[in-house]
Sequence to fold (416 residues):
Amino acid sequence: MRYSALKILAEGLTGNRGWKPVWRTPEPKAEYDVVIVGGGGHGLATAYYLAKEFGITNVAVLEKGWLGSGNIGRNTTIIRSNYLLEGNQPFYELSLKLWEGLEQDFNYNAMVSQRGVLNLAHSDAQRDAYARRGNAMILSGADAVLLDRAGVRKLAPFLDFENGRFPIQGGLWQPRGGTVRHDAVAWGFARGADSRGVDIIQNCEVTGFTMQGGACLGVETSRGAIRAKQVAVCVAGSSSRVMGLAGMRLPIESHVLQAFVSEGLKPVIPGVITFGAGHFYISQSDKGGLVFGGDIDGYNTYAQRGNLPVVEDVCEGGMAVMPMIGRARLLRMWGGVMDMSMDGSPFIDRTGIEGLYFNGGWCYGGFKATPASGFCYAHLLATGGPHDTAAAYRLDRFRRGAPIDEKGAGAQPNLH
Ligand SMILES: Cc1cc2nc3c(=O)[nH]c(=O)nc-3n(C[C@H](O)[C@H](O)[C@H](O)COP(=O)(O)OP(=O)(O)OC[C@H]3O[C@@H](n4cnc5c(N)ncnc54)[C@H](O)[C@@H]3O)c2cc1C
Fold:
C-alpha cells in the first residue's frame, strides 16, 4: 500500500477501514540467504538496502524484543555530518544525503527536519578547531558556516552571553543538520523491507551460532535454529554479549546514556544546540518538548537506566548555556545501552569466522549513521567488499595502528 494525501482522504471518507498493518508477522523459515541479528535502525536499514539496492530479498531480521525497543527508539534524534577525520566525514555526509531523500524513498513520514545544528565555541582554541572541522566538512561536500558571537546571538538570542566562565565566542553551524523522528525511521525501514519480501521476526532472540569447521552456518534462536549463508550481527549495546556467543572478544564496552524531555513548550529553539565547554545538547521536538542529553554515565553496564550524578551534570550544562531551561518541568528521562568502541568510531566488517559479519561500535552517534550504515553493510554483504566511505571501519584497525580517534581522547571508550 502506497501512502499519499489522496489515500488519507479516501480512507477518511470510508471510515479508515482499509489501512493494513505496516509489516507482516511471518513465522521464521528454516533457511535464508541472509539472517540479520537485531531489528534496530541499522538492522532494518541493512535489510531495506539489501532488498532495494542489491535485489537480495531472502532475508530475515531477528529481533529479540519489538521493533524500536532498543536505541533507535531511545535516542535524541540528532542528525549531522560535522566530522573532521577522513575515515568518518564522507561516511556521515553520505548518511545525511540519504536522510535527505529517505521519506520519498521509503514512502513513510519520518519527520526529517533540517533545522540546523549549532556547536558553540567558548575559547579561541575551540573556535580554531571548529574552523578546521568546518573546512574538512566543506572539502567532503558538506555544508558548514563559522559564526562569530554576533552570528550566534542572531540565531539564538536566549543563550547566556554574559556567562564569564563559559563566554560564547562563536560557533560552527551546519544548516543541513537537524532532527528525525527516531521510531518512525525503524517503522519506515521495516515497512520498506517487508514490502520487498524481507521477513521481520520479533520476539526472536539469537542465543547462539551454528558453527562447523570454523564457519558460521546459521543461528540458534528462542524460536529454533535457522540456517543462513550469511549472518549479519548489528545489536548495538548488546554487541559484546552476542559476539561472545561466537567466541569473539570486541574492542567495545557497553555504557549507559541518558536522555531527557521537558513538558511541551511553544517554539523556543531554532535547531540543535550543543554546549562546547561541557557535554550538553538540546533541541525541541515537534510536540514542543525540549529534548536534551549529555555524557554517558561512565561505568560499564547493560542496564537501560542511569544514575543521578549525570542528571545533575546535564542540568548544570543546560543552566550554564541557557538558564531559561531552569523554568521548564521535566516530563520523562530514560537510558539506552551504548556500544562504545576504543577510538569512538564504528565497525562494518566481516569477521575472522566465515559467513559471520559485524556492525557496531556506534558509541552515542549511531542514529545519524542509520541510512549509511545500512547501505554500507548491505554493500559489504552483497559484494564481499567494503563501500568506499566505510573502508576505514575495519575490525583490525587497532592491530594495524590505524584508529579513527575523532575526539583525540585515546583508548578511553568512556570519553568518546
Ligand atoms: C539516550 C540516547 C541518545 C542518543 N542520541 C543520539 C543522537 O542524537 N544522534 C545520534 O546519531 N545517535 C544517538 N544515539 C545513538 C543511537 O541511538 C545508536 O547508536 C543507534 O540507534 C544504534 O543502532 P541501532 O538503531 O541498530 O540500535 P538498537 O535500536 O539498539 O538495535 C539493536 C537491536 O538488537 C536487538 N538485540 C540485542 N541482542 C539480540 C539478540 N541476541 N537477538 C536478537 N536481537 C537482539 C535489541 O533488542 C535491539 O532492538 C543515542 C542513544 C541514546 C541511548
Summary: The first helix runs from residue 5 to 13.
